[in-house]
Amino acid sequence: MGPSDLEEIIGDIQSGENPSVLVGPGDDAGVYLLNGTAIVETVDVITPVVNDPFTFGAISANNSLSDVYAMGGMPVSALAIAGFSSCDYEPVVLKEILRGAVHSLNRAGAVLMGGHSFEDSELKFGLSVMGIANKDNILKVSGAEEDDIIIITKPIGIGILATSLKGGKLTDDDMKTAVEWMLTLNDKASELALKAGATACTDVTGFGLLGHAHNMVKGSGVDFEIKKDSVPVLEHVHEMINAGMVSEGAYNNLRFLDGKVEFSSHITDEDRLLLADPQTSGGLLITVKEKGIKVFEDAGIFFSVIGRVIKGSGKIVVR
Ligand code: CO
Ligand code: CO
Known about the structure:
The protein has 319 residues and is an alpha+beta fold.
């Protein structure tokens, strides 16, 4: 889940406050207070980014679990959703996808409770995940404050690599590192964000780094200053983008961000597309006080400081 037109519509048509809703539409997940427990709920469905069905299932599950982690929650249970053409695929493919999903869920400590499939010409798979959170320590998409540090916990470029794989420009082997990242859970990053007293947090998925950063500044009433050279990028991405391997999603994201992002003149068109590249199972984008960085350093996990929160009114500046 994440801020989108659909989320906006849901927010609009449901008038009236429900005191049990701690976080409503427009964040990575909804949070509902039930008998004192904060229940985190989300859903996400994706199309294949790799050829192997088991790996696709595992990645899709990670991608869905990520929205629970982006709220500072702990996954508990999940339901599967599969769009599937029974003419095009053997039943064993669906079984492998589900085995992959269960593998990821087990690593996250969550259990698959059931699911639903429907006929679809294009293969789609995802999960609705339920988790729990500490009601007094929920990581929201808004809340970033001036002088906070912006960090990201995975490199970007997955959409470009997936497009290149589909286009026959890269082999499964070239995708190895990217697949490892997509299979990396955001559990540790989420735990550290809570420990570091993060002021805001979201996961980087379909809207790309800039799209999700926009959602953070919009709700926080600040500007982000992002240093392009500090943004970590996966291997092969630069050569693929120069070869024209860019997904439709990156162009759409950039179009949406027109007027919302101010690029320095030295930022090339390729760089802009890369910063708007849709990610699958991307890292967490976190704002934190300078002293909170130590928590991430001490834990020894991968992260990059990509910029700083500055005074403003919802704009992103890329230098
Ligand atoms: Co989402
Ligand atoms: Co999200």
